[in-house]
Amino acid sequence: MSGDMTHDEGHGSVAVEQEHGHGVVAENPFADPGLPEHQPRLTDIDEKVARKSERIVAGLFILSALATIAFMVCYTEVPNNTATIVDFFPIGAISASNFALGLTLGVALFSMGAGAIYWARTLMTDVELPQERHLLESTPEDKAVAAAEFQQGLEDSAWKQRPLIRRTLIGAMAVLPLPALWILRDLGPLPGTTQRQTAWTAGELIINDNSISLDGTQGSGIKPEDLQVGTLVSASPAAVLTAGDNAVNMMTMSAILLVRMNPADIKSQQEIDWGYEGIVAFSKICTHVGCPVQLYEQQTHHMLCPCHQSTFDLSDNGRVVFGPAARSLPQLPITVNADGYLVAKAGFDQPVGPSFWERG
């Protein structure tokens, strides 16, 4: 057997053995170049520059706190309605409230992140420390070393030596969660008021949702002859046409579904009394979590909620036949007025929407 052996000290140990025309390369053919020589930053050697960086970081943290407070002020004071929609170039038409909230929250989060990054890049230690990856649990000695390195890192970060950064960071982080508490005000008022009271009153005209104009000021009523057996129509009270900025909330709470069935298919006497010639009206809000129901199966008279598949039998008082909903859809008693249009006899006999603790 014949072969050659070469050794290159400049590029590490490389052994090549020629045997039958094939080469065999030894393990680790390239030497570890190691880390480059550490170059100190200006903040490492000039305390005046370091203090300037400290003030910049503190300023960013203070800006974050102020922007967070501004977010809460804008949330409360800037109205969110059609009168405050402004054309912001190049974004386009947007609510002034949404723009103010997005701007202030964005500044708060950006300033917090930018301050932390600038702090790490200019004042925390930047000495490169290679560390081998271990596949198994570290030994107690390694854990002790890690704890010591953590303590060393705390000292290198100048956390104790830079009280201005420490205090402003703590202050900004203390203020940052406040918007989460601030926006809880939208959960009020208590459901005992909003869910028991809708826009439906005796004689309230029922209008077809599809007939409401874009500006929400015009809509047409519904006559019994407009509905054939099997027809499903989304409807609202005529009061939404004059509700202004409150129209959306009113439609949400008072939305109903009109369905015309063969009177012989209706199982409940109450449903016959509360309907008109086979036309019945039910709340459109699922009693599980408030999703809109509008998937109607004509043959079985079942209404399906698309969110969690609660199923209601509209031929039997809106009774729940499947799914997580705990109670039937509220029914609206209806009749016709002197002009032949469908109107409400009264309001709902029970709160609409999901169940809540005050429902008796």
UniProtKB/TrEMBL annotation:
Record keywords, A-Z: 2Fe-2S, Cell membrane, Disulfide bond, Electron transport, Iron, Iron-sulfur, Membrane, Metal-binding, Oxidoreductase, Respiratory chain, Transmembrane, Transmembrane helix, Transport
Annotated membrane topology: Multi-pass membrane protein
Transmembrane segments: 56-78, 98-120
Domain Rieske, first and last residues per copy: 279-343
Pfam families: QcrA_N, Rieske
GO CC terms, sorted: plasma membrane
SUPFAM superfamilies from the UniProt entry: ISP domain
Cofactor(s) named in the record: [2Fe-2S] cluster
Source taxon at top rank: Bacteria
Record InterPro entries: QcrA_N, Rieske_2Fe-2S, Rieske_2Fe-2S_sf, Rieske_Fe-S_prot, Rieske_Fe-S_prot_C
GO MF annotation: an example: metal ion binding
Cellular localization per UniProt: Cell membrane
Family recorded in the similarity comment: Belongs to the Rieske iron-sulfur protein family.
Function: Iron-sulfur subunit of the cytochrome bc1 complex, an essential component of the respiratory electron transport chain required for ATP synthesis. The bc1 complex catalyzes the oxidation of menaquinol and the reduction of cytochrome c in the respiratory chain. The bc1 complex operates through a Q-cycle mechanism that couples electron transfer to generation of the proton gradient that drives ATP synthesis.
Protein name stated in the entry: Cytochrome bc1 complex Rieske iron-sulfur subunit
